[in-house]
């Protein structure tokens, strides 16, 4: 047994993985205006996500809950400057129910987008399952903090955090068909990492409410590990909250993940992104992760392959995959050296 332990130390292999994982697909693209992002969940599954999770360790129990389906709200429901509102509202209600179910099944929930408007439902379901004891790490090039009055595009994928934050509840009109969702997340429990394209109104809100926000300049100055630690210290100082990690693939540099709708140069490297997820996983408090905005309709076949592979690397890190190698079975252990007694 002692030799096995030594071998583990030498190889850097640890028993470090979540044993129960639930995967949910949300093929929604109505939160923005580029066709193809609804195919993100299928592309990630086809790329080998489920097989990759199972390969981490034989004890891992992964269940694919399939794709969320929904019936749009009645056609006459309309909210000014919120495009395809009826679809987004109806879909997110079902997303919330599904994420809540996965978490109540005592599984870490991995949600595959779809555009980032699905964050409304994933966070809402997480909050309901954990009785509001949730903090949010929003990894994104964009702040997604616009309201329907401030958005230049009317695309709802730029609004989810503004819909979730209780401090911004008075900034919204009545939203028909959204009574299931209450803005009860305190903005003090939200932290951004990777920002580099923030609207002037969003910047004003971040400063006015003192939202924890680390842009790419902060990542460069402090390193991604320190930034993650500082962010979590701000939003979960007592280390008791379930962490919701909402990861937009456009937080990565466009060279790392080109097949996404709002790519911005100067972002995280894939190595930084993986390390970020690993750090969150190692807290033992990761409850749910979204991976959104992979669009297989954009770019060349090689671009799509690179983006899907990046997404899978990030998701595997959320399941405890170690870049030092897959944990060997006990039967695989072979003494590499004998030691004097």
Q: Can you walk through the features of this model?
A:
The protein has helices at 2-11, 40-46, 49-56, 85-104, 119-129, 160-164, 200-209, 216-222, 224-235, 270-282, 301-317, and strands at 20-26, 61-67, 108-113, 134-139, 190-195, 212-215, 242-248, 286-292. The chain has 341 residues and is of the alpha/beta class. The chain has a single domain, classed as Ureohydrolase domain (Arginase, Chain A). Strands 2-1-3-8-7-4-5-6 form an 8-stranded parallel sheet, sandwiched between helices. It starts with a helix and ends in a 24-residue tail after the last helix. Mean pLDDT is 91; it is low at 1-15 and 331-341.
Class per helix and strand makeup: alpha/beta
Q: Overall 3D geometry?
A: globular
- The total of beta strands comes to 8
* CATH fold description: Arginase, Chain A
Radius of gyration: 20 Å
Average pLDDT taken over every residue: 91
Largest sheet: 8 strands, parallel
Strand order in space, largest sheet: 2-1-3-8-7-4-5-6
Given the structure, what is the number of helices?
11
Q: In the CATH hierarchy, what is the superfamily?
A: Ureohydrolase domain
> Which spans have pLDDT < 50 for at least 5 consecutive residues?
1-15, 331-341
Percent of residues in helices: 25-40%
Tell me the CATH architecture.
3-Layer(aba) Sandwich
What fraction strand?
5-15%
- In whole angstroms, the N-to-C terminal distance is 13 Å
């Amino acid at each position: 047994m002692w030799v096995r332990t030594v071998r583990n130390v030498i190889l850097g292999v640890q028993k470090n993985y979540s044993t129960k994982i639930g995967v949910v697909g949300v093929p929604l693209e109505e939160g923005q205006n580029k066709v193809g992002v609804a195919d993100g969940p299928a592309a990630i599954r086809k790329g080998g996500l489920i097989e990759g999770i199972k390969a981490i360790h034989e004890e891992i129990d992964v269940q694919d809950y399939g794709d969320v389906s929904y019936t749009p709200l009645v056609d006459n429901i309309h909210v000014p400057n919120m495009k395809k509102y009826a679809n987004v509202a109806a879909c997110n209600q079902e997303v919330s129910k599904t994420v809540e179910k996965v978490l109540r099944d005592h599984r870490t929930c991995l949600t595959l987008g779809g555009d980032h408007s699905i964050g409304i439902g994933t966070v809402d379901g997480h909050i309901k399952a954990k009785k509001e004891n949730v903090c949010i790490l929003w990894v994104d090039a964009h702040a997604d903090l616009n309201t329907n009055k401030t958005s230049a595009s009317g695309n709802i994928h730029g609004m989810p955090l503004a819909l979730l934050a209780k401090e911004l509840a008075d900034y919204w009109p009545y939203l028909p068909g959204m009574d299931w969702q209450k803005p009860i997340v305190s903005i003090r429990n939200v932290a951004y990492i990777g920002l580099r394209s923030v609207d002037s109104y969003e910047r004003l809100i971040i400063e006015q409410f003192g939202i924890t926000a680390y842009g790419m300049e902060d990542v460069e100055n402090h390193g991604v590990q320190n930034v993650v630690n500082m962010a979590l210290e701000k939003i979960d100082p007592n280390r008791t909250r379930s962490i919701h990690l909402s990861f937009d693939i456009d937080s990565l540099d466009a060279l790392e993940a080109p097949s996404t709708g709002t790519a911005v140069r100067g972002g995280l490297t894939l190595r930084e992104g993986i390390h970020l997820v690993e750090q969150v996983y190692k807290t033992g408090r990761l409850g749910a992760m979204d991976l959104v905005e992979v669009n297989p309709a954009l770019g060349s076949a090689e671009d799509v392959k690179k983006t899907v592979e990046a997404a899978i690397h990030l998701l595997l890190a959320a399941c405890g995959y170690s870049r030092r190698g897959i944990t060997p079975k006990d039967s695989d252990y072979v003494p590499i050296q004998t030691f004097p007694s």
